[in-house]
């Protein structure tokens, strides 16, 4: 994770200014940001909205940002709106990234769910998925997991409900803190009508005033365009 000047965690232990050598080598201005913010800028360009919370729930994790008057707030440490690393289960394991107990990402990420399903994969635990995968854990995919849920898997529906519940809590909390009345969400699990309905139900369950009307579930977009949105945003503002 880097802002182009310093690596935050994961790669280097000391600040490394990666943008400057790139600019010197390429002889063009270079801008860097994380995937969430780039995707939010792409959404701004294509939706014409300047004020919204943007939340992404897909591999590899869960991230968020928000735009106010067309500008992204990044925070003093570049960690603004890291809802994926807010604590959702104080009894959960420590997350190797944020070192907090039971952060949202460590509990409900797609990778975490797939790992749990793979570890328990058996005809007894989930006959629906076992059949779809022809008895081989190597065939497990998100598509088949969601299909097994639709085919009546009790175990997988439990996991989807848990994920929808914690995600709904995180979305409500994010809105409570930021107070912007439009929430755009993009996520692979929302391709499942079943998961989407679980999520909607938990939003209604946990917030009695109308908040679901502020939420817009977005279709999955071509993420390769996101860096282009960062370039347009960064360079047009200087014209
Ligand atoms: Zn974490």
UniProtKB/TrEMBL annotation:
> One matching Pfam family, short form?
ROK
* Residues passing through the membrane, by range: none
- Alphabetical list of InterPro entries matching this protein: ATPase_NBD, ROK
Identify the stretch annotated as signal peptide in this record: none
Task: Name the SUPFAM superfamilies on file.
Answer: Actin-like ATPase domain
Family membership = Belongs to the ROK (NagC/XylR) family.
> What's the protein name?
ROK family protein
Phylogenetic placement of the source organism: Bacteria, Bacillati, Bacillota, Clostridia, Eubacteriales
């Amino acid at each position: 994770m880097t802002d182009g000047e310093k690596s935050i965690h994961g790669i280097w232990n000391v600040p490394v200014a990666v943008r400057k050598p790139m600019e010197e080598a390429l002889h063009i201005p270079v801008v860097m940001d994380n995937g969430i913010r780039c995707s939010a800028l792409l959404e701004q360009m294509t939706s014409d909205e300047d004020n919204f919370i943007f939340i992404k729930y897909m591999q590899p994790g869960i991230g968020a940002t928000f735009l106010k008057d067309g500008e992204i707030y990044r925070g003093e440490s570049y960690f603004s709106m890291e809802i994926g690393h807010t604590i959702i289960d104080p009894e959960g394991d420590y997350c190797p990234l944020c070192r907090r107990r039971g952060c949202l990402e460590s509990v409900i990420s797609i990778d975490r769910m797939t790992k749990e399903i793979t570890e328990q994969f058996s005809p007894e635990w989930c006959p629906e998925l076992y059949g779809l995968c022809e008895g081989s854990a190597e065939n497990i995919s998100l598509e088949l997991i969601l299909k097994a849920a639709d085919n009546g898997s009790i175990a997988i529906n439990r996991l989807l409900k848990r994920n929808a519940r914690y995600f709904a809590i995180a979305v409500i909390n994010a809105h409570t803190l930021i107070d912007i009345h439009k929430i755009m969400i993009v996520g692979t699990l929302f391709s499942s009508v079943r998961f989407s309905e679980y999520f909607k139900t938990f939003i209604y369950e946990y917030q009695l005033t109308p908040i679901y009307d502020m939420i817009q579930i977005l279709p999955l977009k071509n993420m390769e365009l996101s860096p282009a949105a960062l370039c347009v945003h960064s360079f047009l503002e200087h014209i």
